[in-house]
């Protein structure tokens, strides 16, 4: 058996060489987090995300997900742009589209999964074959609780992970392993009395500290929900067409966030400055071509048009906005037609 403490330090060094900003080691005991998840599910706050309920208990039992698991290697990869003011500017310009910062570049799942595999290969090259599985949002894992226990940050009142030195603009990934490495000290919480994330949420989705009602969350509405967006929430969504960053933009800890150095996360196809009318004109072929290798594909073309129709309904009444909506008044998809009709009803000159 190798010197496990020394191996853990080497693994952290290798992770940085691969482009991760931090790696920590956590144990697999998640009792209180499991109880918190169960209460959240019992209250139906997961909305239509049936997979959350289906795998609820398994999320808190890494040793059942991957038999033999003793430790979790939790990694952090930054994606912040270093210019939160630009994000606020986009939100303030009603005819521009706001896409969550994490989705502007290449799909992080693929980027991180590839790097985690390289890290596992490096470990195997050092000590020989060992038991492991790597995950990036690809299995029922309580990744934020594990990352907290690995010392990467604390779970904020908006339920995102916050790091004292790096804010919250980062992705998480895990390697579940049978290596009995020494665990790192868990991170302590530093939100204090701050409630900026709660008060800034456009739809009031953060119903209490550390408690998000997904049914009101714009990220859920624009990505996970495959049906009509509840009409009472549409006016609150502004120009957010894929995800939402307001709670992170308002977090004072993000003043410490550092601009990422990952080329794959650079904005593609001008999505950080695109106009709503321009994106609404994408036919399905264009949508598929422009979103290749992007997390945006998850919403599908109809969902994309639905989301933009809502944003156009919230936009200023201009000839360009009215023309864009009129162009899809007879869209073949009934969900899109309904949202276009709603959007047109919001404009007095329509």
TrEMBL record:
Compartment list:
Cytoplasm
Q: Which residues form the active site?
A: 137 (proton donor)
Where [4Fe-4S] cluster 1 binds, per the record, is at: 191, 194, 197, 251
Q: Which GO terms of the molecular function aspect are on file?
A: 4 iron, 4 sulfur cluster binding; cobalamin binding; epoxyqueuosine reductase activity; metal ion binding
Task: Name any cofactors this protein relies on.
Answer: cob(II)alamin; [4Fe-4S] cluster
- Gene3D superfamilies (UniProt xref): 3.30.70.20
Q: Which GO terms describe its cellular component?
A: cytoplasm
Q: Is Translocase set as a keyword in this record? A: no
Q: Which pathway does it serve?
A: tRNA modification; tRNA-queuosine biosynthesis
Which enzyme class?
Answer: oxidoreductase
**GO BP annotations listed:** tRNA queuosine(34) biosynthetic process
Listed binding positions for [4Fe-4S] cluster 2 are: 201, 217, 244, 247
InterPro entries, alphabetized: 4Fe4S_Fe-S-bd, 4Fe4S_Fe_S_CS, QueG, QueG_DUF1730
Domain named 4Fe-4S ferredoxin-type: which ranges? 179-211
User: What does the subunit section of this Swiss-Prot or TrEMBL entry state?
Assistant: Monomer.
What family is reported? Belongs to the QueG family.
Task: Supply the PANTHER family for this chain.
Answer: EPOXYQUEUOSINE REDUCTASE
* HAMAP family xrefs: QueG
Function summary: Catalyzes the conversion of epoxyqueuosine (oQ) to queuosine (Q), which is a hypermodified base found in the wobble positions of tRNA(Asp), tRNA(Asn), tRNA(His) and tRNA(Tyr).
Q: What is this protein called?
A: Epoxyqueuosine reductase
Q: What is the lineage of its organism?
A: Bacteria, Pseudomonadati, Pseudomonadota, Gammaproteobacteria, Lysobacterales
């Amino acid at each position: 058996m190798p010197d496990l403490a020394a191996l853990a330090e080497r693994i952290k060094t290798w992770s940085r060489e691969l482009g991760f900003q931090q790696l920590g080691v956590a144990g697999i005991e998640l009792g209180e987090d499991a109880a918190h998840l169960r209460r959240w599910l019992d209250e139906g706050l997961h909305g239509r995300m049936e997979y959350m309920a289906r795998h609820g208990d398994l999320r808190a039992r890494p040793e059942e997900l991957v038999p033999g698991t003793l430790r979790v290697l939790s990694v952090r990869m930054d994606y912040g742009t270093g210019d939160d003011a630009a994000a606020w500017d986009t939100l303030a310009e009603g005819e521009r589209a706001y896409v969550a910062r994490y989705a502007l570049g290449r799909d992080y799942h693929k980027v991180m999964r590839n790097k985690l595999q390289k890290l596992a290969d490096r470990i195997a090259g050092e000590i020989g074959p060992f038991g492991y599985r790597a995950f990036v949002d690809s299995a029922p894992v309580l990744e934020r609780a594990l990352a907290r226990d690995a010392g990467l940050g604390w779970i904020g009142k908006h339920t995102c992970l916050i790091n004292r030195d790096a804010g919250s603009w980062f992705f998480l990934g895990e390697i579940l392993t049978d290596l009995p490495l020494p665990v790192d000290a868990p991170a302590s919480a530093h939100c204090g009395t701050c409630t900026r994330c709660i008060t800034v949420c456009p739809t009031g989705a953060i119903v209490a500290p550390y408690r998000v009602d997904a049914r009101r969350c714009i990220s859920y509405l624009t990505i996970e929900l495959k049906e009509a967006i509840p009409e009472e929430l549409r006016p609150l969504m502004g120009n957010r067409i894929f995800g939402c960053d307001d709670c992170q933009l308002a977090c004072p800890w993000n003043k410490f966030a550092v601009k990422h150095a990952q080329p794959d996360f650079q904005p593609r196809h001008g999505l950080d400055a695109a106009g709503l009318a321009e994106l609404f004109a994408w036919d399905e072929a264009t949508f598929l071509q422009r979103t290749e290798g992007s997390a945006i594909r998850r919403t599908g073309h109809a969902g994309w048009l639905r989301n933009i129709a809502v944003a156009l309904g919230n936009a200023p009444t201009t000839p360009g906005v009215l023309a864009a909506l009129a162009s899809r008044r007879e869209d073949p998809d009934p969900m899109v037609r309904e949202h276009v009709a709603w959007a047109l009803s919001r404009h007095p000159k329509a």
